Each structure stands twice: as C-alpha cells, then as structure tokens.
TrEMBL record:
Family: Belongs to the ABC transporter superfamily.
rRNA-binding among keywords: no
Listed InterPro entries: AAA+_ATPase (IPR003593), ABC_transporter-like_ATP-bd (IPR003439), BCAA_Transport_ATP-bd_LivF (IPR052156), P-loop_NTPase (IPR027417)
Keyword Glycoprotein carried by entry: no
Keywords: Amino-acid transport, ATP-binding, Nucleotide-binding, Transport
PANTHER family (UniProt xref): HIGH-AFFINITY BRANCHED-CHAIN AMINO ACID TRANSPORT ATP-BINDING PROTEIN LIVF (PTHR43820:SF4)
Gene Ontology terms: biological process: L-amino acid transport
SUPFAM superfamilies according to UniProt: P-loop containing nucleoside triphosphate hydrolases
CDD domains: ABC_TM1139_LivF_branched
Protein's recorded name: Branched-chain amino acid ABC transporter ATPase
Species of origin: Amycolatopsis mediterranei (strain S699) (Nocardia mediterranei)
Domain of life of the native organism: Bacteria
Record Gene3D superfamilies: P-loop containing nucleotide triphosphate hydrolases
C-alpha cells in the first residue's frame, strides 16, 4: 500500500553458520525517508543490509518491503519489488564499460534516459562511457555504482559504506546525489563510517551494537547525545 513503510524489520535474528550476529533486530524506514544505521566495527550493520536484501537468510523475524512480507523471498524478487543494494566495495561490473553498467539496469527502451540522468548527476561519467569500470578511480566507481543503483528509481536503497576510502570532496558529491534522490522520494538506509554525514542526511538514526539495536530516534538527537561522542564520532 502507498502509506506502508518502505522497510519494516521485526525481531530479525541472523548469523553465519553457528555464529549469531543479529539478535532480535527491529527498525523501520518510513516511505521516502532517510534512516542511518550506525555502530562500531563488527556490530552487524553490513549483516543487516544483507538480510534485508535477501543475500543472507534470517533465522527468525519478519522483513516487509512496502508493506509486503519478503522474509523468505530470494534477492532477485526483492530487487523486482524496488529494493536496491549498493554493497561495500561498490558492486560495479568491473569488466563492463560505464555505459554497459548503466544500460544493464535500465528497462527496455529506457536506456538513453538512464545514461542521460547518470551523466547529469555525475558529468565525469559522461566522459568515460566507453571505459571499463574496473579502470575508473575509486570515487568514479562509487559514482557509477550510485548512478546505476538509481536508474530504476528504486523505492528503497541500501547504501553500505559509500564514502569508504574516498576524498572528502567526492564524498560530498555522493551525499549530495543521495540527498537529491531522497528529495525525489526514494527511501534510503545508510550505513557509513562518516556518522556525522549520515546523520546530516538522515531524519532517523538507529545504533547497532553487538547485533542489537541499542538506540533509535531522531538523527539530530543522536548528534548531540553521549552515544555519539563515545563511539560514533568517526572522521
Ligand atoms: P564493519 O563496519 O566492520 O563492516 P559491521 O557492523 O558492518 O562492521 P558486519 O560486517 O555485519 O559488521 O559483521 C558482523 C559480525 O559478523 C562480525 O563479527 C564479523 O566478523 C561477522 N561476519 C561477517 N561476515 C561474516 C561471514 N561471511 N562469515 C562469518 N562471520 C562473518
């Protein structure tokens, strides 16, 4: 339904083999809003994103996308429902050209439009359309990953460590792009080591610690709280 949250995670537990990582994790991403998921290294943030996108099966709990339960659905079905996951390390097809990476995400007949929008957002990509993605700089690869993720105007985008290893000026550009996509109505779930930037973009923030949500509330409140200073400061 239209008013349903973009994402609801309820009591989700998950892990790898015998190792429990997530313990009864619950949070919501309202439609069209930006939520930051923060926490120290190893807390389980990436694992949450993998569970949401269907890359990792959950042991218990429920996941709903736009009001529809997807807990047992495969990743490609969730993708078809408008979910897009930009993994840590970018997830571009390194052996394909920039143009091919973008066109691959477009619906039939929408290829030119996809290229146009990507180049409008990141003009540098326009000068590299024929270049193999694997030969781009890290920042350019991240721009390509972001542009490719948004070709289909997804309803929910999971962004894992978009700023990792990038120069601040590139990070600014990527966060500005994400802000515009949020203004267009995409819901975003953002995991980022730059807690301050993620909180500046987000309306709501959750803090994960040892696989449990230990805080949830307005992003602005978290910026001013003790939790922020104690381990979320980041660069
Ligand atoms: P980081 O910011 O360091 O990536 P994170 O909060 O994203 O941290 P996760 O990557 O979700 O944390 O990892 C959570 C826990 O799960 C860690 O203890 C990690 O060692 C473990 N883990 C992650 N991936 C695997 C895997 N494929 N097999 C086994 N254990 C894993």
């Amino acid at each position: 339904t239209l008013d349903a949250p973009a994402l609801e995670v309820e009591g989700v537990s998950a892990g790898y083999g015998p190792t429990a990582v997530l313990r009864e994790v619950s949070f919501t991403v309202p439609a069209g809003s930006v939520v930051a998921l923060l926490g120290p290294n190893g807390a389980g943030k990436t694992t949450v994103l993998r569970a949401v996108s269907g890359l990792l099966p959950v042991r218990s709990g429920t996941i709903r996308i736009a009001g529809r339960e997807v807990t047992r659905e495969r990743a490609h079905r969730r993708f078809a429902r408008g979910l897009c996951h930009v993994p840590e390390g970018r997830g571009v097809f390194r052996g394909l050209t920039v143009r091919e990476n973008l066109v691959l995400q477009a619906a039939a007949g929408q290829e030119d439009d996809a290229l146009e929008r990507a180049v409008a957002a990141f003009p540098i990509l326009g000068r590299r359309l024929g270049q193999q993605a694997g030969t781009l700089s890290g920042g350019q690869q991240q721009m390509l990953a972001m542009a490719a993720a948004h070709v289909r105007s997804p309803g929910l985008v999971l962004v894992d460590e978009a700023s990792l290893g990038l120069a601040p000026i590139i990070v600014d550009e990527i966060f500005e792009f994400l802000r515009q996509r949020a203004d267009d109505g995409a819901a975003l779930l953002i995991v980022d080591q730059f807690a301050r930037r993620a909180l500046a973009l987000a309306s709501t923030a959750y803090v994960l610690r040892r696989g449990r949500i230990v805080h949830g509330g307005p992003a602005a409140d978290l910026l001013n709280s003790d939790l922020f200073g104690s381990y979320l400061g980041g660069p």
